[in-house]
Structures are given as structure tokens and as C-alpha cells.
Design brief:
With 154 residues, the chain is an alpha+beta fold. It has a single domain, classed as Gcn5-related N-acetyltransferase (GNAT) (Aminopeptidase). The protein is built from 5 helices and 7 strands. Strands 1-2-3-4-5-7-6 form a 7-stranded mixed beta sheet, with helices on both faces. The radius of gyration is 15 Å and the shape is globular.
Length: 154
């Protein structure tokens, strides 16, 4: 186990099915088109690397990624709106990338809405680089929205 994981013990831990009500609550407060309980449940069943970030026993964020064949794909990373702007998203991202490295990933990928400037700023500041665009990837209020594809060498 890495030093970063030991240092944050109690604050960063594996997601369980019992965490889903809190996780879904954050997801629904954060996104206009949130993941469903079944999506999270399927991620847990299929062995995706799923984690929560806690403070005082309250879940304030979560991340889900797949790690296969030396690559990790961050599928969802979210901090409760009441806890944003405090470096918690950066902390969660850093912890997840440590997990990816421990699992022998040498690169990380993710998609982010073109309109999500806060997330784009975080990822770019952490060394991710734009490698492409997925046209009409996300549902949007008036149709579909493009996704920026980002990658980082680990």
C-alpha cells in the first residue's frame, strides 16, 4: 500500500454498496444527467476500482475507474457541491492515480464535458493533456454536448 493511502486512512476507502445512497445523493446534486444506482452497482459488481472520500464519517466525494492492461480510465470523479473549492477533488484524483500506479497502469484517460471548466482546469493542472474530442458524448439540456478526451502518463 502506498504512503499516500496510509496517510489518508479513514478518509479514503473503497466504496461499498452501503455507500450508494450517499454517493447517489452527491451525484444527483452535481449533475443534470446523473448516473443511476444501477450504474454504480454494476461498477461495483464488475470490479471497477471505486472509492469514497470522507470527512467526519460523511461521504463528500467518490471516484470510479477501470484499470486494465496498464491503463486506467477514470469514469466518474465527483465532490459534493458543498465541499468544492477546498482541494478535495485534487486530493481524490491524486489518490486514484496512486491506486492506478499500484495496479501497474502507466497511463490514465478520462472524458470531461467541454463546459466543465472547473474540472478541465483541475485535470490540466495535474498534467493531463487533451488528446481528442468525442462528439455528442454527453446528454445536454438542448441535445448533446462534446467531451474532451484527456490523457496522462503515469
Amino acid at each position: 500500500m502506498s504512503a499516500a493511502l496510509k496517510q489518508s486512512a479513514g478518509g479514503f476507502r473503497r466504496m461499498t454498496e452501503q455507500d450508494l445512497p450517499a454517493v447517489i445523493g452527491i451525484e444527483q446534486r452535481s449533475y443534470q444527467f446523473p448516473w443511476t444506482r444501477n450504474i454504480f452497482r454494476d461498477c461495483l459488481r464488475h470490479g471497477h476500482s471505486a472509492w469514497v472520500l470522507e470527512t467526519d464519517q460523511d461521504i463528500i466525494g467518490y471516484g470510479v475507474m477501470s484499470v486494465l492492461v496498464q491503463e486506467c480510465h477514470i469514469l466518474n470523479l465527483c465532490i459534493d457541491p458543498d465541499h468544492r473549492g477546498q482541494g478535495k477533488g485534487r486530493q481524490l484524483l491524486e489518490e486514484m492515480l496512486i491506486i492506478a500506479r499500484v495496479n501497474e497502469a502507466d497511463s490514465a484517460f478520462l472524458e470531461v464535458r467541454t463546459s466543465n471548466f472547473q474540472a478541465l482546469s483541475l485535470y490540466l493542472s495535474e498534467g493531463f493533456r487533451e488528446i481528442g474530442t468525442r462528439r455528442n458524448y454527453y446528454p445536454a439540456q438542448l441535445g448533446r454536448e462534446d467531451a474532451v478526451i484527456l490523457a496522462k502518463r503515469l
